[in-house]
Amino acid sequence: MDLSSVVQNINNVTKFVLLGLTQNDELQKIYFxxxxxxxxxxxxxxxxxxxxxxxxxxxxxxxxxxxxxxxxVDICYSxxxxxxxxxxxxxxxxTISFIGCIAQLFGVHFFGCTEIFILTVMAYDRYIAxxxxxxxxxxxxxxxCGQMVAYSWFGGLMHSLVQTLVITHxxxxxxxxxxxxxxxxxxxxxxxxxxxxxxGIIVVANSGMIALSCFLILVVSYxxxxxxxxxxxxxxxxxxxxxxASHITVVILFFGPCTFTYIRPSSNFSEDKSVALxxxxxxxxxxxxxxxxxxxxxxxxxxVLWTWLQRWLGR
Length: 315
Known about the structure:
Rhopdopsin 7-helix transmembrane proteins, single chain, globular, three-stranded mixed β-sheet, mainly alpha
C-alpha cells in the first residue's frame, strides 16, 4: 500500500462522521436492543456450529468442513461492522478515524468476498455429491477441501487489497460525513475531492463482477443438480433437496443485496444502508438457524452435544 497516499489523506481528513442508521433518538434505542440481540445470536449460533462440527465424529464430511469455515467467516464479517454500529447507536458523536475507516473497509471486503467464495465452493461440493456420488470421496479429499478454503481466503485477500488501494489513492479534502453505518467504497468515493470515474469502474468491475459471476455459477450448478435429481429415488431427492434448500436460501439472502449494492456505479441511494443490513447482519445471524433447522444430521449432533453437556454439568 502506498503509505505516502495514506499520510496525505490523514493530513486532510483525520476522521469521518458516520450518520448511522437513523438520527431519531427513540429509534436508536430500539435499534440498539434489536441489533445487539441479532449480533449475540450470530456469534453464539455460529460458534455452536463450529464446536459441534469439531466435536462430532458424525459430521466429518466436506459439507460440514465448509460449513464450519462459513460460520467462522460469518462471525468475523459481522464483527467488522456490528460492534461499531451498535456502540454508535448510544453515542452522540459517531466518528471513526481515517485509519480505522480504511481498516473497516478492508475487513468488510476481505471477509465478505471470502464468504462468497466459500458459498461457491459449497455449491460445487453439493454438485459432486449429487451428480457424481461414486467419485465423491476421491474428488473431495481432505487435501482438496483444504486447498479450496485456502484459495477462498486468498481470493478474498486479493479482492480486499484492490478495494483498499483504490480508496487510499484518492484525496479527501472534506466534507467528511458518511451517510452509512460503516465505511464502504461507494460512500467514500462520493467524498473524494478528485475524479473518481476510473476508481468507480474498478470498484464495479472488482466487487460487482465477483458477486455476479459467482451467483451465476451457483445458479447454473443448482439447475444441473435439480435436473440430475430426476433419476434419483424419492427419498434421495428429498434428502438432497433439503440440503440444497438451506444453501440456496443463504445464497439468495447474501448474494441478492450484495449484487444490488456493488454491481452499479456509486450513487446517493439512501436505501443502501437498509440493503447492507441483510449481508452484514441478517444473513450471518440466520445462517445457523437455516443450516440446523433443515438438517437432521446437525440436529442429531446438537442433541448429542447437549446431552453430553448436561451430563458433564451434572457431575
